[in-house]
Write a sequence for this structure.
């Protein structure tokens, strides 16, 4: 509560005390004035008038006392709050030590917990968040642990506890690791940024070198409707950005039945044959070949690539993630 508010309450309180005194004085004064009237009056009307006045005075006095009690309680709460102990200060040194121990030990579980402590430590803790985002936590027995840590970072961004860091990562691209920028860009539509922040992020795209960040920022700032995605797919200077946009377009509107390649792991065997946004055209005679192991023999596939049908001889599709798409979506 502000000092002005406290002063106002004190004035009202003092005024309330004065009103209480006035109300206590009024009954006696009225009794003196009504005694003569009561003696002179005859009948029931003469006897009831003083009684009605006294009841009214009693109700007014009770109302004033209630207001005074409420003001006293509020002033007591204000006094208590003014003497409340300050919130404990975050020990950044201890946090830094804990982060370095967890990163050196590739302890992804500990780092996921520490992200929330760092979110409460303010701007001074941002380099430690950068350190966690840039680190690898892959060890035997912990499958995709780095991915889990980055997923937790996205959850912290989604909670808006590190919203300023997310904006800074997308504006000052050289100051933060690519993994953190990707996490920030993926959360961009949910950060509820004002127009000024969104404009700053859009202007910084010229210095962004990571195509995944570029794509997520383009969608986060410009929207993910079909028209916007089609424009990105046709005109963005980066091929991976164009292909990521085509994946989104084909998910909504595919000209053929088949399996859309929506992700390709870097250096995966399947990347030697198929590209992101390729569609393997469905064949009743030949089911979709496995993406979990090398093919037992070469296989010829009909593939839609960049709007054209081509035929490819493939031997290995490992490292590809696919999803079914339906041609009838184009007519909805």
């Amino acid at each position: 509560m502000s000092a002005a508010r406290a002063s106002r309450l004190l004035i009202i309180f003092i005024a309330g005390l004065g009103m209480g005194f006035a109300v206590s004085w009024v009954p006696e004064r009225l009794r003196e004035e009504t005694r003569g009237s009561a003696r002179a009056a005859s009948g029931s009307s003469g006897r009831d008038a003083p009684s009605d006045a006294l009841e009214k005075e009693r109700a007014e006095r009770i109302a004033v006392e209630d207001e005074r009690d409420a003001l006293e309680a509020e002033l007591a709460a204000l006094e208590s709050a003014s003497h409340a102990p300050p919130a404990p200060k975050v020990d950044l040194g201890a946090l830094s030590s804990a982060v370095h121990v967890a990163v050196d030990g590739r302890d992804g579980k500990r780092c996921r917990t520490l992200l929330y402590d760092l979110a409460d430590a303010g701007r001074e803790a941002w380099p430690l968040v950068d350190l966690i985002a840039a680190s690898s936590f892959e060890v035997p027995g912990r499958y995709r642990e780095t991915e889990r840590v980055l997923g937790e970072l996205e959850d912290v961004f989604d909670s808006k506890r590190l919203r300023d860091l997310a904006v800074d990562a997308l504006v000052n691209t050289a100051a933060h690791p690519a993994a953190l920028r990707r996490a920030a860009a993926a959360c961009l539509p949910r950060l509820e940024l004002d127009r000024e922040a969104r404009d700053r992020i859009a202007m910084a795209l010229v210095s962004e070198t990571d195509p995944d960040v570029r794509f997520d920022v383009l969608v986060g700032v410009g929207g993910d409707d079909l028209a916007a995605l089609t424009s990105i797919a046709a005109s963005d200077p980066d091929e991976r950005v164009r292909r990521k946009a085509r994946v989104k377009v084909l998910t909504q509107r595919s000209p053929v039945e088949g399996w859309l390649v929506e992700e390709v792991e870097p250096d995966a065997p399947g990347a030697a044959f198929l590209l992101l946004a390729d569609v393997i055209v469905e064949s009743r005679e030949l089911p979709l070949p496995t993406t979990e192991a090398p093919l037992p023999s070469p296989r010829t596939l009909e593939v839609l690539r960049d709007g054209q049908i081509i035929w490819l001889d493939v031997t290995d599709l490992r490292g590809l993630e696919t999803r079914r798409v339906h041609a009838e979506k184009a007519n909805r």
